[in-house]
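Supplementary material to the annual report.
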Amino acid sequence: MQRSPIRHCRECGSPVVYRLPDDGDNKPRAVCTACTTIHYENPLNVVGTVPFWGEDGRQVLLCLRNIEPRRGKWTLPAGFMELGETTAEGARRETSEEAGASIEIGPLFTLMNVSRVGQVHMYYLARLLNDRFDPGHETIEARLFTEDEIPWDEIAFRTVRETLECYFSDRRQGRLGFHTIDVG
Amino acid sequence: MQRSPIRHCRECGSPVVYRLPDDGDNKPRAVCTACTTIHYENPLNVVGTVPFWGEDGRQVLLCLRNIEPRRGKWTLPAGFMELGETTAEGARRETSEEAGASIEIGPLFTLMNVSRVGQVHMYYLARLLNDRFDPGHETIEARLFTEDEIPWDEIAFRTVRETLECYFSDRRQGRLGFHTIDVG
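Predicted assembly:
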């Protein structure tokens, strides 16, 4: 998601201009030409889970996207964090909305910077409580994959691929860690 | 920071109303009454460091705030993450801006949800390369404190106190970990 520039003031509706504010700030901001309100634009968090199942967590749950971007590609359940929730609560909500999966949420597993698009992606480990799924309208199909079955060329986002690679690599080494990655 | 409601559309300047959008979303959003643009509001990231110095990192660098909120209280260097930077780059920038400190940035140390105000705070460990500081206009004074010297009743934010407590506790145990905390 590349963001479009702000055109009008959220307070009074007048046009804004991008300029250095008068408060000593060293970055251009959208400043209202009428009421001088400064509008800040900041990175967004995307939160999700790695839902696992079976002996030694050998299967993970992926969702076939029914919405753009990347409709028809596979993803871990994830979405934009909302006001009023924690990162873990957001991850749980997305897992429920996109996969209808029941989980016991675990520790944070990956934190990835996608600075090119102004996003931070965070994935939590999540033990599936059963293997019955009930995907919402954003998902065509939700199913379990072993490492060998993962459709690596059909993964929707690089952060999902990175997280899956970390997951199976950690499983082989017998210890799930915490990974910070700059995706660029 | 409690955020004020959006009043006008950033695209066309017309008034917005808070309502359920027509796309199946289940949360009220600010929707433009003229062009129907939907305006999302999401949590913000605050990024900073725990700059340490001396044998076994026994001293940490705190900054006496020269700006509101909490002017005259002590904080770790931190501020809002900006577009175009990673969490670690933002933490480094804030450490430079607020303390003028030279650091070697280390791993992520704390990730704290402050869902009441829609914020996620992240602190990185940072080894100070020297003990000369050059605080910017946001800081009255930057100085090193041992655990015994920390002005616990004069700490600006709860996330700073939590991070400092984790730091000294981990140091006593001889191992710096990664901590996720819900501050409420």
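Chain A is about 15% helix and 35% strand.
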